[in-house]
Amino acid sequence: MSLPEVLLWQRLKGAPQGISFRKQHPIGPYRADFYCAVAKLVIEVDGISHELGDRPERDEVRTRELEAKGHHLVRIPAADVRDPDAIAASIVAIAARPLHRPFGTVPLPASGEDLGA
């Protein structure tokens, strides 16, 4: 694990707010840096190598494949992990969302159902 990953793991292990995370979790042919099974949330911490060669294209394919299987993927540039407490709190907040779905994917009520105004 890279230093940013270690710093985040120190904050995510132990189920913060009752939400469990796994590190280096296998999903098919991939290995997620961090994974929350309840939210189907994949967290990837991307270092400089993710900007080189064909890696951006490979990451894009990986994201599409994981999302097609119902996972929500969040990529965090390693350089942005200057405040690991804030980043970990944001990850926990994403995992704690009640619907665990990106905006726009929530099914609409069937015709005639009350919208709950």
Salient structural properties:
117 residues
User: How many angstroms does the end-to-end distance come to?
Assistant: 48 Å
Mean pLDDT: 83
Low-confidence stretches: 113-117
Number of helices: 3
Structural class: alpha+beta
**Overall body shape:** globular
Order of secondary-structure elements: HEEEHEH
Strand content: 15-25%
Major beta sheet, specifics?
4 strands, mixed
Number of strands: 4
Question: What would you say this structure looks like, in words?
Answer:
The protein is of the alpha+beta class. It has helices at 3-12, 55-68, 84-96; strands at residues 22-27, 30-36, 41-46, 72-77. A four-stranded mixed β-sheet has the order 1-2-3-4, with helices on both faces. It contains three helices and four strands; from the N terminus they run H-E-E-E-H-E-H. Residues 113-117 have low confidence and may be disordered. 32% of the residues lie in helices and 21% in strands.
Characterize this entry briefly:
The chain is α+β, with helices and mostly antiparallel strands. Helix content is 32%, strand content 21%.
Write the layout of secondary structure elements.
Layout (H helix, E strand, L loop, with lengths): L2 H10 L9 E6 L2 E7 L4 E6 L8 H14 L3 E6 L6 H13 L21
Parallel strand pairs: 3-4
Antiparallel strand pairs: 1-2, 2-3
